[in-house]
Amino acid sequence: MAPHVDKYLSPEAISRISRLEIQARNVVEGFLSGQHRSPYFGQSIEFVQHREYVPGDDVRRIDWKAWSKTDKYYVKQYEEETNLRTTILADVSESMQFGSGSTTKYDYACSLAAALTYLLLRQQDAVSLVAFDDAIRGLAPSRSRQTHLGTILSVLAQQEQVRKTDMYGILRTVADEKSQKGMVVLISDLFAPRDSLFKGLRLLRQRGHDVLIFHVLDDQELNFEYSGTTKFVGLEATGDLVCDPRSLRDGYQAAMQEFLDETRRRCARNVIDYRTIATSEPLDAVLRQYMNYRVGLSARRQ
C-alpha cells in the first residue's frame, strides 16, 4: 500500500522544508556577500555561448553589447557551468539519528545538503540527490533550475533513519549509473566497513568523478565528554551498553582518532577531498572549505 499522502504534506514536513530553504538561502547569501570575488568561483573563464535571460539570473551577467544589437537580454555561459554535474549522496541510515544536542547528524546533513544545493543552483550547476541507507530511498534527478531546490528538500524531509548502511552497494550503483563525469559529494558519518567504503569510492574515481566527503559527526562522538553511569543505546543493531564513560574515554578517543586518521590517509591516497565536520560547526565555515576546493579544482583543470 502506498504511504498516506499526509506523511509527505504534513505541517511538520512542510515546516521543515521551509526552514531548510530559508537557512540555505541565508547561509549562502550571507556567505557570498562577504566575499570579494565573483560567486561563480568554480568556473572556467572560457566563454562558450549566450543564452536568453530568465528571471532569477544575475543581472551582472547580462551581455549589454548583445542587448544593444538585438534588443534582447542574454547572459554569458562559461565552459565549467555547462559541463559540471554534482551528485549529493545523503546518508539516511539509523546512526544519523544521533544528536547529543538539539541537532542530529541527519539534521545537520540536511542543512548542509540544502546549502550546497542552493549554492550550486545559484551558479547554474546541475544538482541531483541520492538519499540512501542499505538501498536508495529517495532520488531527485539532475536539474539546474532554481525551483529544483524544493524537490531536493522534499526528498530529504521525507526520509526516516531506521536501517543500516550498505555503502559499497550504493557507491557502486552510483558509479554504474553516472556515466557523465562530474562531482560526487558524500555526506555521512561513514559508519561502515572501511574496505567496502573505499572500494566504492575508488570506483567513482576510476570513472573520472571528483569526490568530496563531508564526514559529519556529533561533538560527543568526537570528544566523548560523558560523566556518571550512562546507558548507551546502540543504533544499527550494535547493542546497548551501561558503563562509566570515564573509564572508557581514553581508549575511545584513541580509537576515534585512529578512525579519522585512517580515513584521511586513505582519502588522500585516492585523491578524494575530505573534511571532518562537528555538528556544532557553522555552515559558513563548511562552505568556505567547499569554495576552496572548487577554486583548486578549477585551477587543476586549466
What's the topology here?
Blueprint lengths: L5 H4 L1 H23 L13 E6 L11 H7 L3 E5 H5 L1 E7 L13 H18 L3 E7 L3 E8 L4 H10 L9 H11 L5 E6 L5 H13 L3 E8 L1 H5 L6 E3 L8 E3 L5 H21 L3 E6 L4 H19 L1
Parallel strand pairs: 3-4, 3-6, 6-7, 7-10
Antiparallel strand pairs: 1-2, 4-5, 8-9
Helix pairs in contact: 2-5, 2-6, 2-11, 5-6, 7-8
Largest sheet: 6 strands, mixed
Q: Which residues form runs of ≥5 with pLDDT under 50?
A: 1-9, 35-45, 79-83
Strand order of the largest sheet: 5-4-3-6-7-10
Q: Oligomeric state of the chains? A: single chain
Overall, the morphology is elongated
Strand elements, count: 10
Structure description:
The chain is an alpha/beta fold. It folds into two domains: 233 residues, Rossmann fold; 34 residues, no CATH class. 45% of the residues lie in helices and 20% in strands. It is built from eleven helices and ten strands. The protein is elongated, with a radius of gyration of 21 Å.
Give a nutshell description of this structure.
The protein has 302 residues and is an alpha/beta fold.
Main attributes?
302 residues; alpha/beta; Rossmann fold; 2 domains; six-stranded mixed β-sheet; two-stranded antiparallel sheet; elongated; disordered N terminus
